[in-house]
Amino acid sequence: MSNSSSSSVVAITAPQPSGRLAVMTAYAVAAAAIPIPILPDRMLIRVRGAVVHDIVSRHGLSLTSDARAMLADPDSEQRTRMVKVAETVVRQVLRRLKPLGAINSVSRGLEVFALGLLLERYITEVRPTGQVRMHLEEARKVRGMIDRSALRAFSPSLKPGQTIMADGLEDLRDELTRWVDAILLTSAGLPSYLERRLEAAFDQVVGETPGSRDG
Fold first, then answer.
1. 189: phi then psi, degrees, rounded to nearest 5
2. Helices (H), the chain
3. Residue 126 near residue 209 (C-beta atoms within 8 A)
């Protein structure tokens, strides 16, 4: 597996996130917005569990019940930090946005998107072949890498590969403009720029995690 660097050039050839993952992300955003105690978390657990099951089953794998519970749990040690970072980004990009209550719903959607995208990447590019069952310890390790990657994706120091636009023109937008464009384009689906940032962050985290390629 090769890691992205600041000098790399990436052509936009990777497929967009699957329609199923996009819909599940929307479900998570909607569930988090429900103003009923307890219900949102229960629905998020169901959504995240379904995403995990869909991905592992498509690759001919199975999950133990405790492994699924670990990946489906909507809360983690990184969550509070991620929400704070998201609030900071939104305030900097859209200073007049009021109220900021929607951030919780959006961050829940981002977490589901990151879970689906990076679990797929882990299985296809990092996980050793030949093991058909994922147990709790592996799920805990993967969950930690995904959560750290989602948080790192917001870091200004992260430099995903330089983008070459579909018509061959170089993307010369500054970082602030990219974030504004990303927010404005969410109605058309999560932008590929966010996907590339998550993947670049995940590649870094995998490289820093001892035994990340051990099942």
1. 115, 150
2. 19-32, 39-58, 65-72, 79-93, 102-121, 136-152, 175-184, 192-208
3. no
Inter-residue contact 48 to 143 (CB < 8 Å): no
pLDDT tens digits, 134-180: 999 999 999 999 999 988 887 878 877 655 545 556 667 777 777 76
Task: Provide the 3-class DSSP secondary structure of residue 91.
Answer: helix
> Would you call 167 helix, strand, or coil by DSSP?
coil
Other CB atoms within 10 A of residue 94 CB = 14
User: Given CA atoms 149, 153, 159, 162 in this order, what sign does their dihedral have?
Assistant: positive
pTM tops 0.90, yes or no: no
Domain ranges within the chain, ordered by starting residue: 18-157
